[in-house]
Amino acid sequence: MKFKIDFSLDRRKLLAAIGAGAVSATTFPVFGQAAPLRKVVVIGGGMAGATVAKYLRLWSNQTVDVTIVEPSTSYVSNIMSNLVVTGQLQPSTLNYNWSKLTGSYGVKVVKGAVTSVVASGTGWSVNISGLATPLACDRVVVAPGISFDPVLDNVSQPLAVLHAWQAGPQTTQLRDLLAALPPTGTFVMSIPPAPYRCPPGPYERACVIADYLKRNKPGARIVVLDANPDVMAEPVNFKNAFSTLYGSNLTYLPGRKVKFITAGIAAFSGTVAVDVVGTGFTEAYAGDLLNIIPTQRAGAIAQTLGLCDATGFAPVNGVSFESTIKPGIHVIGDASKTALPKAGHVGNQGAKICADAILRLFANQQPYPTPTANSACFSPLSSTVASWLTAVYQYEQQVDLSWKYVARDQVSALTGATEAGAPSVQNFSKMSTWYKTLMTETFA
Ligand SMILES: Cc1cc2nc3c(=O)[nH]c(=O)nc-3n(C[C@H](O)[C@H](O)[C@H](O)COP(=O)(O)OP(=O)(O)OC[C@H]3O[C@@H](n4cnc5c(N)ncnc54)[C@H](O)[C@@H]3O)c2cc1C
Domain 150-294: which topology? Predict the structure, then answer.
């Protein structure tokens, strides 16, 4: 495999590359002679799991047996779900399934949730709820996404909070409660400490909800309580939107970590108490609708399998996404702990690096030593304009000799991600092309 970054790309070519959802100029070896038949079980058929399954089949010339185990009958995309919350998109635009992966690539799909994985000979035995016979395989790929930590210090179980951070029934529930917000009501949302799924996502939600309120309930307002010290992604465009577009109806408060909630009379209303980080003070904010996004960690099965460290995420070797705790098991997507952001586009890229590494390992080769991934994210800032954020992530050796993914601007090659110069209608239209391309790249 030859990953190549062309740092001389101009901005137009860059956007075309993002639209293609591609790792820049990539060619892959064909692993057609793998013998004996190798088997891989993928736990979770989301952004990362669906991609790794597809590319294991595609790049092995369909010689590796690949099974996705997934409890749901369809996948609901988180990406674009903020526009379902505001009623701009229909929920059906978020629905995907695995029929094309099965029909075009021969990926097998078993319905069920993985409950345990046990070492068996040189491979693994994967136990699935409701299935008497475990699945045997050579390697396991764990891609369960995230789970939510208890958010408050006065409860021991995850609260019944309305986060809508795992798209599905909560997405439409938040949409319906937003539509029912009193005309002069207050919408309070909280942002968890990083790392969390989709760094720009909460700020995007704050903007599109402020836009919705401006258009539909001009007397209502939104209060954003951020546990982080500052806006975590696209700071220029989001802060600009907070102070200009939404200067009159959005209050952004960094350094506010949710401490506890006192329930109100209406569903998901009440008062949120927050620690003002680093001061020892507590403040309280009353809301007619509370959208609390809890602290996150890897999906529950990654915890059960003992793949996570104290951060709650699973440390992996960046060249293969193989667990550094349990070799032979790979962890991809949001559940893994790398310097890559937790995003669907990145989950797709990491899954390809993992698929390539597994095929090389099956062919008794070493994983490619310096893989590259890219990240692109379009963020709607209203119902008509969007911004974007992008970076190339190069796996490279650091001065202390450790290895990690380092973000680089695709144009200047300087360290760090690049955000759009300004939000625009044109970006909003490109966002739909990017979304369709990424989802086709993953599920078709
Ligand atoms: C509001 C919002 C907006 C976002 N916008 C963007 C964006 O614009 N761009 C972007 O790149 N990313 C975005 N993201 C982030 C993106 O959705 C996630 O990073 C991505 O879905 C992670 O992929 P994943 O495969 O790790 O997890 P998921 O996509 O969540 O998939 C996990 C799958 O694992 C299954 N599973 C869980 N446990 C088990 C088990 N025990 N056995 C079998 N299967 C199991 C689940 O059912 C699920 O299907 C957004 C997220 C949110 C919440």
Answer: FAD/NAD(P)-binding domain (3.50.50)
The length of the chain, given as a count of residues: 444
Express each pLDDT in 279-293 by its tens digit.
Answer: 999 999 999 999 999
**Centroid of ligand 1 to alpha carbon of 339 (angstroms):** 18
What is the architecture, at CATH level 2, of domain 11-147+297-443? 3-Layer(bba) Sandwich (3.50)
> What is the domain partition of the chain in residue ranges?
11-147+297-443, 150-294
Q: What is the DSSP string of 8-41?
A: T--HHHHHHHHHTT--TT-B----TT--S--EEE
Give 131-184 pLDDT, tens digit per residue.
999 999 999 999 999 999 875 655 555 557 999 999 999 999 999 999 999 999
Cα of 438 to ligand 1 centre, how many Å? 13
Instruction: Determine the atom of ligand 1 nearest the C-alpha atom of 115.
Output: 41
Closest ligand 1 atom to Cα of 144 = 34
**β-sheet with 123-128: strand ranges across:** 114-120, 123-128, 135-137
Measured in Å, residue 188 CA sits from the centre of ligand 1 at: 24
